[in-house]
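Q: How do we represent a protein-ligand complex in a form that can be generated token by token?
A: Start from the inputs.
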Amino acid sequence: MASRRVEILSLRTILCSANVALSVRGKTLVGELWLDLRLFGIFNEFFPKVFSSSSLVKHELVGNYSHLFTVPGREPDLEPYMLLAHIDVVPADEADGWDVPPFSAQELNGFIYGRGTIDNKQSVMGILQALEYLLERGYTPRRSFYIGLGHDEEVNGLHGAVNIMKLLKSRGVKLQYVLDEGLAVLDGVSGLDGPAALLEENPMPRLFGYGPERGTFEHLAHKFGLPLRSIMSNLWLFSPLLSR
Ligand SMILES: [Zn+2]
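Then emit the structure tokens for the protein with zinc ion bound:
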């Protein structure tokens, strides 16, 4: 029997684009959002600290269904970062070849099936669970951060991500970086020798040697032999070379 936390997979949080018709309980929706509002009850029940605004976290609804969380850090001069995930999924039908109904959250042969399991409800639940855990312990991060959970990412995020971005811009927020969903690492696929993942063709520029790792390597430099010792203690100069 799947845990109650898996219930999120059984909730229809479907966005269909303007040219896709979706049939939900006898109703045909075109270019509409079908958001099972029990989702909000589940969020409040599982993550009471995250959703009850306190001095440790501020929760705001944006575009009616998207969520923005602000977690203030101890050092307000540090540029904040942002974690992103999305609640919505693309439509799914059992006729598409699903082994179990796509919104059943059924467990089959040790695997839990549900539309959105890896895109992107696992990120939504993982981020919220981690924050709940930290808030329970009264955690205050050094660096402030934001969490944005969009409700219409699959159809360009015009109401969710765009409004979150406008809100942050109006507050003069500049982000150091944004961490969004990635692709799955394929492992155990027949015919594939080892794990494989597709990397983005236009990744962000390499920043190795400009973050916290710089201090770590410089601190450890004396433990390396030459010539690595010189390289590690001069990352300001050699990081472009080392990060290749
Ligand atoms: Zn996604």
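The pocket of zinc ion is lined by residues 86, 119-120, 153, 181 (CB under 6 Å). The mean pLDDT is 81.
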